[in-house]
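Entry type: protein chain
Record version: 2
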Amino acid sequence: MRPISIGRKRRLSLPAAGALLLALPASAAALTAGLGSFPGGAKAASASAHGVTVKRGTARTAAQRGCKKRFTVKMGEGAANLIYSGSGEVSGHALKVLGYIERCQRNPAAQDFVRGYDHYQAQMHRARVVTAEEAAAARASQQSGASSGWAIPSWVVQCESGGQNLPPNYAGASGYYQIIPSTWTAYGGTGPAAYLASKAEQDAVAARIWDGGRGASAWVCAGIVGIH
């Protein structure tokens, strides 16, 4: 992470967070540049790291902040990246850990920066959670059966027959759902072929074959559109 000077403030470029740029006071940005660039040099950096009041008088000792351990900005970023990775729920304990790391920065001037980074990662995590929930709902809809007047997902029907009650093809499959005679009879269909039955009966037989998605493999097109 490298500070970039912009006017009287600096911005930190955070590779781990994509294009995120967070504005920092110069004193906080200097923390990530190494001891050599810390205001006042390595001696001042060491003093700040041990909880000694810095020049601006904003720092408090670790004991005053209730800190048994102190953290760097990098450590704070790493914790946020780990806790907010994936799309699972973040526990209350994990959030307390992040709050502790925010409060117990070696350089108290960096607290707002670390807190802002945590909030950004929380927003990104929430977006992933919503995306995962929507994908799960879509999969459930695909596997549930009826859609747009059909007993199985409509895109499977469109792939199989184009929504038409077709006569038998070279394999003997017929009707709206392209059911072969042996399967048609096995699942309770009347007559010699599916296309000779009413749509209502074809719907009922197709629903029994589909069985909430468990019978999706009976249709080649279900695999083509990604339903297995």
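Comment: The chain has two domains: 2-141, 145-224.
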